[in-house]
Design a protein that fits this description.
It is built from four helices and nine strands. It is of the alpha+beta class. A five-stranded antiparallel beta sheet has the order 1-7-8-5-6, with helices on one face. Strands 2-3-4-9 form a four-stranded antiparallel beta sheet. It is globular. The termini are close together.
């Protein structure tokens, strides 16, 4: 599951988007919307507001929104986050190194002229409003070695399936 360190890099990059007023929301491909989220809902929830915190829960990047609510971003194996033209991760093993505008699936433009963009050539990621973080279970970085050992037990099931 190499995406966890990538999402942590994206969380750090997203710090540059905090406190900036969102002027516009764009969805380049509606298939990128998840959990019943619509473009109209995104615009209502985000435009005129700012992100107040950037958090990671497993492979989900969560951006808290001023006045309440959260934006969840998933990147899959091929998605990348860009803030003001800076990429959080330069190279992904399972994705192209090219940056094509047609791969920009979701973006927010800030009133200062900058932007936060999710680019995903294979549409493996997605965006959702108010993701159910509790359904994800504990974050991998919050579990001790002893807790992990107890949770995995002596099962013969493949490790990735147990995780």
């Amino acid at each position: 599951m190499p995406e966890l360190p990538e999402v942590e890099a994206y969380r750090r990059l997203a710090q540059a988007a905090l406190g900036r007023t969102i002027a516009a929301v764009c969805v380049g491909d509606r298939r990128f919307l998840r959990g019943g989220t619509t473009l109209r809902q995104l615009r209502t929830a985000l435009e005129g507001r700012a992100f107040t915190a950037a958090r990671r829960r497993g492979k989900l990047l969560v951006l808290d929104v001023e006045g309440g609510g959260r934006l969840g971003l998933r990147f899959g194996m091929t998605g990348r986050l860009h803030v003001d033209g800076t990429s959080g991760v330069e190279r992904l093993v399972y994705s192209s190194d090219r940056r094509l505008p047609s791969w920009d699936r979701f973006s927010v433009s800030f009133d200062d002229g900058g932007a936060l963009v999710v680019s995903d050539p294979r549409l493996l990621g997605g965006v959702v409003l108010d993701p159910d973080e509790e359904a994800l279970g504990p974050d991998a970085m919050a579990v001790s070695g002893a807790e992990l050992y107890r949770a995995l037990g002596q099962s013969r099931v493949a490790l990735k399936a147990r995780l």
